[in-house]
Amino acid sequence: MSEILGKFSTQSYAFTPTATVQNWIGGEWQDASSGDTLDVINPRHGQAMSRAPLSAAADVDRAVAAAAAASAEWKQWPMRERAQVFYRLRGLLEAEREALAWLISHENGKIYAQAVAEVDKAIECVEYGCSLPNLAAGTQLDVSRGVNCQVTDEPLGVVAGVTPFNFPLMVPLWMLPQALVGGNCFVLKPSEQVPLSMVRLAELFVQAGLPAGVFNLVHGGKATVEALCDHPGISAFAFVGSTAVARSVYGRACTAGKRALCLGGAKNHLIVVPDADVELTAENVVASFTGCSGQRCMAAANLVAVGDVDHIIAAIAEQAAKLMPGTHHGAITNASSIDRIKGYIDRAEQGGATILVDGRGKRGEEPGGYWMGATVIDHVAPDSPAAKDEIFGPVLSIVRVPNLDAAIALENSSGYGNASSVYTTSGHVARAVIGRVEAGMCGVNIGVPVPREPFGFGGWNDSLFGHGNITGWDGFRFWTRPRKVTSKWALQKDTTWMS
Ligand code: NAD
């Protein structure tokens, strides 16, 4: 077991400091050129558990050179052999499931059970990569007499990805299986807040037999990301993070001539109508807005209460009030996020909203750390910041509307378009809502409507810049380009202009 992971085999929330991480370039651990580092804070304890280098353009350049050097050989491997690496990786992830979950829990702050769920979802993404040789056979057709056209999906070369803090293992594995099985070499920049899971993944890739240089890890922040956007040796760039950054890096990468797909933030609406099942709705809504402490792009943010649903709101408030931070959901990523989340609750209260459940004073048992309890705010004004902005914490804003048309209009007034759900026992209502909401991922009686493999993950509008989804078949298409080969092996007597 590696030094990094060995520390997390203790299987507890006890504070665990670990080594400073390095970049992984061409199969070697390397220091960044500048020597600048950033503390990696364990959100549950509020203490520095590691340090991550802040890499500069020169480090990105080194990683791209290593990836380019590996590319010539890697793209010659048959896809079936490239997929074998992911079969082996799957076994390694399964074997380390618990220790990996503890590692995620320590660097991200989520509770162990929710970290296990992340590992399981990451494994599903790897399984999709394993299946690619059975899906990517390409096509061919005799397009005229004696003339055949064949289409194959070819790698782009060196590609890059940038990922957020909230899913340290899963989000990178939204990208890597399709990109690598597709024959590319990758430069990944994980969030500087959670670099450790990717350090372990680099080690597991070695055990799985991935050749040096195919996967490279460059840690850092804004300057590192901008160097990736600008680097002429990178053909495609994927990003997952907040909308402001997604929009800006999408523009920058496209300007530099890259194919880009950049997923942004969210403000997800759950529309609840009076005929909804009370137990199902309450349990599901609470799980959605408190899971990962609301720090996920699929979390419920606004509950749009259509007509009289007071009985359902009462059940939601009752369940949410029982949740304890540290036990039922984890810590918040850092101190400034606590200030941001509290600020939204304070302003909503000052604006006349009713705080049904107040999480501002709740905390986990540890003396330090960044904590916030589940919070339910009723009668939130539809044009207030609590109803419009991404709060990214365990906060549910309830906006009251008189009818379904008003609910759909409210949903569609949001610039975001990640997820939207409706809670009803009526198929007619469900169809009416799903057919009209501006959201890429919709749910019926499901609070976190993630389209699991083989379906592709991706929102609309300000939640996604570019085309298609990041996972599933769209992901494979994003990381590859079609080659069309038209061939003829004999002179045709009955020739046409096409032959
Ligand atoms: P973030 O945008 O702050 O950071 C994401 C990545 O961008 C990190 O690697 C970070 O180093 C880098 N970065 C930060 N500021 C930058 C800048 N100015 N220029 C260039 N790069 C920069 O996001 P976060 O706080 O890590 O993650 C939370 C956000 O991610 C939320 O908005 C959430 O909704 C979103 N998210 C979206 C999805 C999705 O699928 N749409 C999934 C997960 C998270």
From TrEMBL:
Pfam families: Aldedh. Coiled coil: none annotated. One of its GO terms (molecular function) is methylmalonate-semialdehyde dehydrogenase (acylating, NAD) activity. SUPFAM superfamilies: ALDH-like (SSF53720). Residues 29-484 form the Aldehyde dehydrogenase domain. The keyword Oxidoreductase applies. The keyword Oxidoreductase applies. It comes from the Bacteria. Its EC number is 1.2.1.27. InterPro entries: Ald_DH/histidinol_DH, Ald_DH_C, Ald_DH_N, Aldehyde_DH_dom, MeMal-semiAld_DH. GO terms for biological process: L-valine catabolic process; thymine catabolic process. Keywords: Oxidoreductase. Signal peptide: none annotated. Belongs to the aldehyde dehydrogenase family. This is Methylmalonate-semialdehyde dehydrogenase. It comes from Enhygromyxa salina.
